[in-house]
Automatic annotation (TrEMBL):
<feature type="transmembrane region" description="Helical">
    <location>
        <begin position="384"/>
        <end position="406"/>
    </location>
</feature>
<keyword id="KW-0472">Membrane</keyword>
<dbReference type="InterPro" id="IPR012507">
    <property type="entry name" value="YibE_F"/>
</dbReference>
<feature type="transmembrane region" description="Helical">
    <location>
        <begin position="28"/>
        <end position="49"/>
    </location>
</feature>
<protein>
    <submittedName>
        <fullName>YibE/F family protein</fullName>
    </submittedName>
</protein>
<feature type="region of interest" description="Disordered">
    <location>
        <begin position="417"/>
        <end position="440"/>
    </location>
</feature>
<feature type="transmembrane region" description="Helical">
    <location>
        <begin position="159"/>
        <end position="180"/>
    </location>
</feature>
<feature type="transmembrane region" description="Helical">
    <location>
        <begin position="342"/>
        <end position="364"/>
    </location>
</feature>
<feature type="compositionally biased region" description="Polar residues">
    <location>
        <begin position="422"/>
        <end position="433"/>
    </location>
</feature>
<keyword id="KW-1133">Transmembrane helix</keyword>
<feature type="transmembrane region" description="Helical">
    <location>
        <begin position="240"/>
        <end position="259"/>
    </location>
</feature>
<keyword id="KW-0812">Transmembrane</keyword>
<feature type="transmembrane region" description="Helical">
    <location>
        <begin position="187"/>
        <end position="207"/>
    </location>
</feature>
<feature type="transmembrane region" description="Helical">
    <location>
        <begin position="279"/>
        <end position="301"/>
    </location>
</feature>
<dbReference type="Pfam" id="PF07907">
    <property type="entry name" value="YibE_F"/>
</dbReference>
<feature type="transmembrane region" description="Helical">
    <location>
        <begin position="213"/>
        <end position="231"/>
    </location>
</feature>
Length: 482
């Protein structure tokens, strides 16, 4: 069964003024919890905001050129394999030595093609083709790097990927906006805001030695508040999902802090970790791993909480007379299916990112238990387990909050509209007689709501929309007869 992502209030129901008033009251009740939490998060963010100073951080950027050396770009005209020994060779040794790959490249700045030596690992694993645009190191201005010295004057650095990456990003944005429309556009803007928080707050904070647990919690909470409200709007559904997300985030943070310490996740054997340690004594590799454990699960956590919140509302629209217990049970049927699929999502996402390590471990032919707890794989294993536990616990909590909110506002809405459970069809602007009969049938048959719970959120939304259209058609027909 697929999982729908028709999140938020999509306007499927025709709300009466009384309903709108009670929904507003629900938002105020949720605000009593969320506003102080938001203020506390903002204050913590201001107090922990990085100074931007890099004092005590020493590093040599591999992209900083020495005097006389430049980084140039160009398009490959031809590729050849020749002896790695360039220039005049001793008598009797001509043609000896290993073979290297060279790319005759036309510089973008103009001039004659230059002979760029391609790194052996690139030549062997991927290779270069005619028409590729590359970035290379121009050593021709450095003394000793001359064609007759035997040292290469032009060395491959990287491919220039600007065009394909930009095209892919544009295609992604077009597809998202075409399918999700305005909400998709807002989600993309929210994603940009999330990365802004990551780059301007979390990463500099880690460099300056800020407390990693607080840094990750505060930054992640700010990201979730911005992303959820900006993409899905201010509503009781979104606020409910936010509460569930923050709960799951807290559980994930506590488990991550415990697991990082108990499992001794120190980044041992990681080249990037060793580089960071040598840059500054303030940088904590364990702290960086802790932040990574928390941040890595944000996307999936956000997805399941907003879906679960929407599922409760859609089920309620189908059967507003259902008891809270029954509504919770039915919504959790959807939640359990979502748990099963998202657990696979997390596991395979991390497995895909760690494929090179997995291959190396496989070739070492080590016992499975030893491999999974090794320095190479333990971080990925802990990340998967911690993220999955936080995700699983967030679903029932989100469902419970959503049920309490929707039942509290829904009961008052029925009372305000003068609607009784057994005479729902008599309320102006509510269900038609046919829909009231469907509601009574749902109440009479314990299996009916469970059948709706087997649908995903998008399918539920379609059912609600169909009913709304039928009610609207009957209303217009009644007005025409009068």
């Amino acid at each position: 069964m697929g999982h729908g992502h028709s999140h938020g209030n999509n306007g499927h129901d025709v709300a009466t003024p009384e309903a709108l008033a009670y929904r507003k009251r629900a938002n105020w009740l949720l605000a009593v919890v969320l506003v102080p939490l938001g203020v506390l998060t903002a204050v913590a963010m201001l107090l922990m905001w990085p100074s931007g100073s890099r004092e005590g951080v020493t590093f040599a950027s591999p992209y900083a050129a020495a005097p006389g050396v430049t980084f140039d770009t160009g398009r490959i005209q031809s590729v050849v394999e020749e002896s790695c020994m360039q220039g005049p060779q001793p008598a009797g040794q001509a043609g000896q030595g290993s073979q290297c790959t060279f790319a005759f490249t036309e510089p973008d700045k103009g001039g004659s093609p230059v002979k760029v030596v391609i790194n052996p690992d690139v030549a062997k694993s991927h290779g270069v083709d005619v028409g590729d645009t590359i970035r290379y190191l121009n050593l021709s201005g450095v003394q000793g790097a001359s064609p007759g010295s035997g040292s290469p004057s032009y060395v491959f650095v990287d491919f220039v990927r600007s065009v394909p990456v930009v095209l892919l990003a544009v295609l992604y944005a077009v597809v998202v906006i075409a399918v999700a429309r305005w909400r998709g556009f807002r989600a993309l803007l929210g994603l940009l805001g999330a990365y802004a928080v990551l780059v301007s707050f979390i990463l500099p904070g880690l460099v300056e030695g800020k407390p990693p647990l607080l840094l990750a919690l505060v930054g992640s909470t700010v990201i979730m508040i911005g992303v959820l409200y900006f993409a899905h709007g201010f509503s009781a559904r979104t606020s409910t999902a936010l509460l569930g997300t923050i709960f799951g985030l807290g559980i994930t943070a506590l488990l991550a802090a415990w697991a990082t310490d108990v499992a001794n996740l120190a980044g041992v054997g990681n080249h990037d970790a060793a580089t960071l340690v040598n840059m500054s004594g303030q940088i904590s590799i364990s702290g960086i791993i802790l932040c990574g454990l928390i941040i890595s699960g944000l996307g999936v956590l956000n997805d399941v909480t907003i879906t679960q919140s929407s599922a409760v509302w859609e089920l309620y629209e189908l059967a507003p007379q259902t008891s809270a217990r029954k509504l919770f049970t039915s919504a959790m049927r959807i939640g359990r299916d979502h748990i099963a699929s998202t657990v696979y999502t997390i596991a395979f996402a991390y497995a895909g990112a760690a494929l090179p390590i997995l291959i190396i471990v496989m070739l070492y032919d080590r016992p499975v238990a030893e491999a999974l707890t090794s320095a190479e794989l333990s971080e990925e294993v802990v990340r998967t387990l911690v993220g999955s536990i936080g995700l699983v616990l967030a679903i029932p909590v989100t469902t419970l909050i959503a049920v309490l909110v929707v039942k509290a506002t829904g009961t008052k809405r029925l009372a305000a509209a003068g609607t009784q459970p057994d005479v729902a069809s008599q309320s102006a602007g509510t269900q038609s007689a046919a829909d009231a009969g469907n509601v009574r049938e749902l109440e009479a048959s314990p299996q009916s709501l469970d059948a709706y719970a087997s649908l995903d959120t998008g399918e539920l939304a379609a059912v609600v929309e169909t009913r709304r259209q039928r009610r609207e058609a009957e209303r217009r027909a009644a007005e025409g007869r009068s």
